[in-house]
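Predict the 3D structure for this chain.
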Amino acid sequence: MRPEETAAIETALGSRVLANRTLAGGFSHETCLLTLTTGQVVARLGGPDPAIEAAVMAAARPHVPVPQVLLVQPGTAATRPVMVIEYRTGTLLSHVLADDSLTPADLRALGAEVGRVAAAISTVEFDRPGFFADPQLTVPPERPWSAQLPELVASWLTNTPDARLDPTTRAAWLELCTTHAPALTAVDDQARLVHSDLNPKNILVSRTNPGWRVDAVLDWEFSYSGCPYGDAANMARFGAEYPTGFLPAFHAAFAAHQPVPPPVNWAYLGQVLDMFALGELVTRPAPHPIADQAAARIRHLIEHMFELSTDLSTAGDNSEAVPMTEPKADLHQYLQAAREALLWKLDGLSEYDVRRPLTPTGTNLLGLVKHVAGCEIGYFGVTFGRPFPAEFPWLTDTAEPNSDMWATAAESRAEIIGLYRQVWAHSDATINALDLESTGLVPHWPTERATPTLHRVLVHMIAETHRHAGHADIVRELIDGTSGLRADNDNLAPGDRAWWAGYRDRLEQVAKDAGEC
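Done. Predicted structure below.
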């Protein structure tokens, strides 16, 4: 920090700077921890207009833990633009994830909390998608992201060093972006706040009893109005480096806490949105470790084009991107109807009611969801050599009996429901990728049936899911009297509460009369 900048901050805040320590963070900023006579603050110098960033932070603060902005000053001939914010305690998420002592339960709880907060960012809405033009957060008209992706990547590639991406790889990357850009038409009109640099180095967390708390989301310099799924993809971009358990819990909570329920293929759409960031990152001059990581990610995506198009596929949202044969589409429709009916039975209930055991064998709503999620992980994942990208202790051979049939206190409703939705996407990828006659292996089935076709597995899971949706229907009726087939069609005889009470009494009398015969 220059002496002139220190003096300007002292004058504006009316407090002397006693110490100054440079911090990491901020691509285009110098970030400093200042110790003043009145306490500690953080100064961010340089970069884009700090007044816009301060306005974004103010808009996000009612929904997300964001430091208070204490001072915004434009640049002068002698000083850089500066924003001074309050100092927040906490540990960088990147440091916490490097802690080898964390248990799987710790990591799941941490991922769920970070995912919940990350989803809350998108609570803020704007008139249209695009970039902020002024401190009033005006968003000028912007061409659709689906149209911009190929053009921007092509222009960025001209500035990408050959040592980072060779000409053949650059051509393949442009082809990949061009192929998947049309998928963004599904989210071109979304206009929610996007942090756009959501990664473990920009999040402060701390332990609570019994879990975790996000203390601050930092560095909002790249924020814009658009589709929030890109934030989840940003967090997952280098997820191979995270310890097992964090990322699936993050994804599950992120999906479960979205202000608007996301489509089944939301994570795939996020990956396509992340192509913008990857394409820009690789243009950074060497040496630049993050740009090199981005180049490695690009090479991975090129080598696994099939994964990108199907592993988090568009199936389940009536997209035409991955066509299904008519028989497969019919089977998938019945499976999806059962999934949605099962989740609907939890709507509007308390944490207690979704966990209440209401039969002698302990049947409960959230446990049914957890159980069916585990079934899909096995039958559409391991059976066909496409394992779900996370392991769960309740699915191991050494798990406590029935541990897949109830949720522990540490497993929130959002986590279980979010996991189920993630499992849908993974299962649907298998359904899309394979022919109905493709065979898998189910070791615990009898030998003569241990190599079922996808067709048989689909029929099995339709039966399994509808069976448990029926269980859920009865359990829900025992809780509060709510019953019916699905939200838009209860499929029940017409009648008010009094009619149904009379109907039940009549059946009771008929039963008694028959029993006396």
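The longest helix spans residues 454-480.
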